[in-house]
Specification:
Blueprint (H helix, E strand, L loop, with lengths): L2 E7 L3 H16 L2 E3 L8 E6 L4 H20 L4 E6 H5 L1 H7 L5 E3 L7 H11 L3 E3 L9 H11 L13 E5 L1 E2 L10 H5 L3 E2 L2 H13 L4 E5 L7 E3 L4 E3 H9 L6 E5 L8 H9 L6 E3 L7 H7 L5 H14 L4 E8 L6 H14 L3 E6 L7 H5 L6 H26 L3 E9 L1 H9 L10 E7 L5 E7 L6 E9 L4 E5 L34
Parallel strand pairs: 1-2, 1-3, 3-4, 4-5, 5-6, 7-10, 10-13, 14-15, 15-16, 19-21
Antiparallel strand pairs: 8-9, 11-12, 17-18, 17-20, 18-19, 20-21
Bound molecules: 5'-deoxyadenosine (5AD) and iron/sulfur cluster.
Length: about 500
């Protein structure tokens, strides 16, 4: 009988990728993935520590598991990732039945640790000693052992994949736990990244999202020269079959002109930049240690839009950070009003033990005030999103079709009796080159293809479209298969020609 592994993942794209790599490695040991906790021989929880809410979610999942472990003591329970790195003692205290606690730098050891638990029934702990102890060797070892074992079934879709280009963070924003859970910032060698991208494309992947905590700070030092993000992207641009390159998340102070030139001039690069500002008030930004002012951010935003016409920009905000007055919050409201982000992710400040903010500043904004500010900011952002979406109506956009829309999925899931349109046509969804989500009707066989869609309608959250009729043949693209792979590649300008090694 095959052994089964169940995994729950919370948190960012980094965690989604980590889970994919862990499952890939376990598959090699004969494990199959299951969606049903009761069927599992191994249950893994890949955790996030960025906000308290995410941690509580994991503890409540672990609470549910306690009874299962009572019924079936053979089951191996593992807590992985950021919480494991930060709170190994606390996890063992709150959930003593947990068998493995594995930090972010030790995930490659999961298959070995599972076997050890099975053989000895002793709890296994594997975490980095301290930030300074996370050596380059350790990082490289984890990359190398992971890369060949990626698991396509864990990806967002079979034709989209995350690629880690950098780990850790050196910025030390005072509210943030990441520098202590993910260690020092280290960029991965370009040749390894290029090789991984080629491998992914060989497996049918069309879009790669390069991920790093501050992805635009990427720089690999070869000793005699350096490779920056713009060059890294240029170096993978001509991989045949690769259609889209995205990168997240950007740090405002590292948004250099060479990168913006690359985004503009390289046709496969998605025209979308996620550049969190966090607050519109200089005093708050200073307490956050973001190292820029609101004016600096707005100038950077202006430069992004000037250098990359039509670029979509999104942001993150923390409301209710220590010492945020009504006056400072009003400045954030004003920034959102004028910045006109495509969308924003808004979070209520959550004090994280061990961070500089927790040590230095009282968490003095009451919860109800945080909630109100969150809602107020969201209202302004939603107005902007609605306007941004309305501007798209009438445009023709290239959409990489990802799958059935959420409505379609829940209709299928609930077997609600909802009739699909005739001829196998379903409501599908995908992203445009500016990261807009589009919903439209089409046959399922379009999934995984790039189609042209005319935008017909918009809400604050979604834009709606119609698959375009092919102008040359007059045939509705919804009824023909698109050209097979091998169609002409978008060409990059000469000055971005770099050898692909
Ligand atoms: N509380 C609330 N939000 C936070 N973020 C990071 N740390 C905290 C915290 N302690 C938010 C930031 C960051 C996003 C990933 O999470 O906005 O950009
Ligand atoms: Fe955290 Fe700041 Fe680093 Fe982002 S840049 S991961 S917010 S410390």
């Amino acid at each position: 009988m095959t052994k089964k592994v169940y995994i729950e993942t919370v948190g960012c794209q980094m965690n989604v990728l980590d889970s994919e790599l862990v499952i890939g490695a376990l598959r090699k040991q004969g494990y199959d993935l299951t969606d049903t906790p009761a069927d599992a021989d191994v249950m893994l929880f890949n955790t996030c520590s960025v906000r308290e809410h995410a941690e509580e979610k994991t503890y409540s999942s672990l609470g549910r598991v306690r009874l299962m472990k009572k019924d079936n003591p053979e089951i191996v329970i593992g807590v992985l990732g950021c919480m494991a790195q930060k709170d190994q003692e606390l996890i063992r205290k709150r959930a003593p039945y947990v068998d493995m606690v594995v930090g972010t730098g030790q995930l490659a050891e999961v298959p070995m640790l599972v076997e050890k638990v099975k053989a000895t029934r002793e709890p296994q702990l594997a975490v980095s000693l301290a930030r300074s102890a996370a050596s380059r060797d350790e990082v490289e070892a984890s990359f190398v052992s992971y890369d060949p074992t990626r698991d396509p079934t864990m990806r967002p879709t079979p034709f989209q994949a995350y690629v880690r280009i950098q780990i850790g963070c050196d910025k030390f924003c005072t509210y943030c736990v990441v520098p202590s859970t993910r260690g020092p910032e280290q960029s991965r060698p370009p040749a390894h990244i290029w090789q991984e991208v080629k491998q992914l494309v060989d497996q049918g992947c069309k879009e790669v999202t390069l991920i790093g905590q501050t992805v635009n700070s990427y720089v690999y030092d070869h000793g005699d020269r350096k490779t920056r993000l713009s060059e890294l992207i240029a170096g993978m641009h001509d991989v045949a079959g690769l259609e889209r390159i995205k990168f997240v998340t950007n740090y405002p102070k590292d948004m250099t002109d060479d990168l913006l030139d690359a985004v503009r001039e390289l046709p496969k690069v998605v025209k979308y930049l996620h550049v969190p500002v966090q607050s519109g008030c200089d005093e708050v930004l200073k307490r956050m240690k973001r190292n820029y002012t609101a004016d600096y951010y707005m100038e950077m935003l202006h430069r992004c839009r000037e250098k990359v016409p039509g670029v979509a920009v999104s942001s993150d905000f923390i409301v209710g950070f220590c010492g945020e007055t009504e006056e400072s919050f009003a400045k954030t409201m004003e920034l959102v009003r004028v910045a006109k982000f495509k969308n924003s992710f808004i979070f209520k400040y959550s004090e994280r033990p061990g961070t500089k903010a927790a040590d230095r500043f009282p968490d003095d904004v009451p919860e109800d005030v945080k909630k109100r500010r969150n809602n107020d900011l969201l209202l302004v952002q939603n107005e902007n999103s609605r306007a941004n979406h309305r501007e798209q109506v009438g445009k023709v956009m290239e959409v990489l079709v990802e799958g059935p829309s959420r409505r379609e999925q829940s209709a299928t899931h609930q077997a609600s009796g909802r009739q699909s349109p005739p001829g196998g046509v379903k409501q599908l969804t995908g992203h445009t080159m500016t990261d807009h989500i589009v919903v439209f009707d089409g046959p399922e066989r379009l999934i995984g293809q790039t189609v042209r869609v005319t935008i017909t309608d918009a809400s604050p959250f979604t834009i709606y479209g119609k698959v375009l009729t092919d102008e040359v043949t007059g045939v509705d693209l919804a009824n023909v298969d698109r050209e097979p792979p091998g169609q002409p590649q978008p060409q990059r300008p000469d000055r971005f020609s770099l050898p692909l090694v």
